[in-house]
Amino acid sequence: MTKIVVYYSKYGYTEKYANWIADTLACPCVPLDQVSQIDFSKIKTLILGSSLYAGTMKGSKLLDEHLDKNLIAFSVGLRSPSEAYFTEIIENNFSKEVRDKVHFYQFQGGMNFKELSFIHRLLMRGIKKFTFDKVPVAERDEQFTKMLDCYYESFDFSDRSTIQPLIEQVDTL
Ligand SMILES: Cc1cc2nc3c(=O)[nH]c(=O)nc-3n(C[C@H](O)[C@H](O)[C@H](O)COP(=O)(O)O)c2cc1C
Fold first, then answer.
1. Which of 63, 78, 85, 145 is the most exposed place for a label (fewest CB within 10 A)?
2. Where are the domains of the chain?
3. What pTM did the predictor assign?
4. Residue whose CA is at the smallest distance from ligand 1 atom 10
């Protein structure tokens, strides 16, 4: 066993990606709260997945403890993957040592508004009103429009095929 996926997921979207990756790589997949059970001495490649909450990836500090391994990280969020957003997430969540060696990927998840915690519902109502609704209609792409249409119900943009570049990177290590 030389590869492992460790993930944090609150509502199941990151867990889905973590399971897809572990299934493709035929390696174990362990939730972040069970990380103490892992024998890291046998691990050569550590893949950390974490959902984004206000730009923060829970568990990102785990990578600082494993600078001797191949490091892969992925975030799952609502924002469509973009170079500028990647850069911001990496800067805010990883130390310089980790940034210098981690291979980072960003995937899209989803949201089921009714399943959110009270606080998350409150925050997401605010984000819609003060940010999303203010994006001019001409600047909204198809996915953004779909998200706004289904915002208070549920939508899921997760897509197994998007893990392929991460898999190809792991295969080169
Ligand atoms: C309070 C709150 C804050 C969020 N902040 C971000 C964010 O900063 N960037 C982003 O892309 N998605 C953000 N999201 C969307 C979640 O990352 C998305 O719903 C994800 O699929 C959740 O994955 P999980 O179920 O694995 O935790 C936020 C969602 C909530 C409820």
1. 145
2. 3-109+158-172, 111-156
3. 0.94
4. 77
